[in-house]
């Protein structure tokens, strides 16, 4: 562990003023746009579409050290090794996207008809041609986000072992730690699952409308105890972060595509 470089906080999602999930009406004006996320995924009106498979590069299967950060809004996770950048392409995405990091929302932000899941993971990738998340957040389709639903199960899922370390940052927003448990992205993604596709936004301020969303239909599982570890984090006001899901946004005529 001692050989790791010091943790540098990424500030790409920073917003000058405090925002909370309790008062979403006070989020900045950009969050009142017409292509916002999350949405309720339609049961009947989704446009059936043929998508080629999503292609992940081989590092998606490699276990690597990660850094966990309590952002005050979620547990942010990224690979510790800065040269470790799993990529995704195909599946109707235009070009190659590079992983920035991933984080979680409880309960889920996206909804399938009439139903929410206890947990949703967001795997945030930026278009390689923009070279950084900072640039990608200003560009149409600059960000590709993969959404994964998780159901609760009795026993632990080894893929979530890294959540054992959340207690070390639970009460300290903005601090990062190296996890004792390495992560392979493929263990957290339902690779091969059919998915929904639509064009939307970040689900946190500044709600940039630059995101190509891929929401997998097939849920994975997390242990009940692991889910509770995640939910122990406190926000910046030293209060337990009981929920961190943005409300469902209007489609405003957007199409939602579903793979066949
Ligand atoms: Zn998210």
TrEMBL record:
Q: What is its EC number?
A: 4.2.1.1
Q: Which InterPro entries match?
A: CA_dom, CA_dom_sf, Carbonic_anhydrase_a-class, Carbonic_anhydrase_a-class_CS
GO molecular function terms listed in the Swiss-Prot or TrEMBL record: carbonate dehydratase activity; zinc ion binding
Keyword S-adenosyl-L-methionine belongs to the record:
no
Q: Which reaction does it catalyse?
A: hydrogencarbonate + H(+) = CO2 + H2O
Cofactor(s), by name: Zn(2+)
Question: Alpha-carbonic anhydrase domain location, by residue?
Answer: 17-260
Q: Does the keyword Zinc apply?
A: yes
- UniProt cross-references to Gene3D superfamilies, sorted A to Z: Alpha carbonic anhydrase
Q: Which UniProt keywords apply?
A: Lyase, Metal-binding, Zinc
**What PANTHER family does the record tag this protein with?**
CARBONIC ANHYDRASE
Function of the molecule: Reversible hydration of carbon dioxide.
Family label: Belongs to the alpha-carbonic anhydrase family.
Protein name stated in the entry: Carbonic anhydrase
């Amino acid at each position: 562990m001692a050989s790791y470089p010091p943790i540098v906080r990424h500030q790409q999602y920073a917003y000058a003023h405090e925002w909370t999930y309790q008062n979403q009406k006070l989020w900045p004006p950009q969050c009142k746009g017409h292509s916002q996320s999350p949405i309720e995924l339609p049961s009947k009106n989704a446009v059936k579409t043929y998508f080629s498979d999503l292609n992940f590069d081989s590092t998606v299967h490699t276990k690597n050290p990660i850094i966990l950060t309590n952002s005050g809004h979620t547990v942010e996770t990224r690979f510790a090794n800065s040269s470790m950048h799993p990529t995704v392409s195909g599946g109707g995405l235009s070009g190659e996207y590079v992983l920035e990091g991933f984080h979680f929302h409880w309960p889920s932000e996206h909804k399938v008809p009439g139903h929410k899941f206890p947990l949703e993971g967001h795997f945030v990738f930026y278009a390689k041609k923009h070279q950084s998340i900072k640039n990608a957040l200003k560009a149409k389709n600059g960000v590709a986000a993969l959404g994964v639903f998780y159901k609760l199960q009795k026993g632990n899922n080894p893929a979530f072992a890294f959540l054992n370390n959340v207690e070390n940052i639970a009460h300290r927003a903005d601090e990062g730690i190296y996890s004792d448990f390495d992560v392979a992205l493929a263990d957290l993604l339902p690779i091969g699952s059919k998915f929904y596709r639509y064009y939307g936004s970040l689900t946190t301020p500044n709600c940039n409308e630059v995101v190509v969303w891929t929401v997998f239909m097939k849920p994975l599982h997390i242990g009940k105890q692991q889910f509770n570890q995640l939910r122990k984090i406190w926000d910046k006001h030293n209060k337990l972060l009981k929920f961190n899901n943005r409300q469902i946004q209007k489609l405003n005529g957007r199409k939602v595509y579903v793979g066949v």
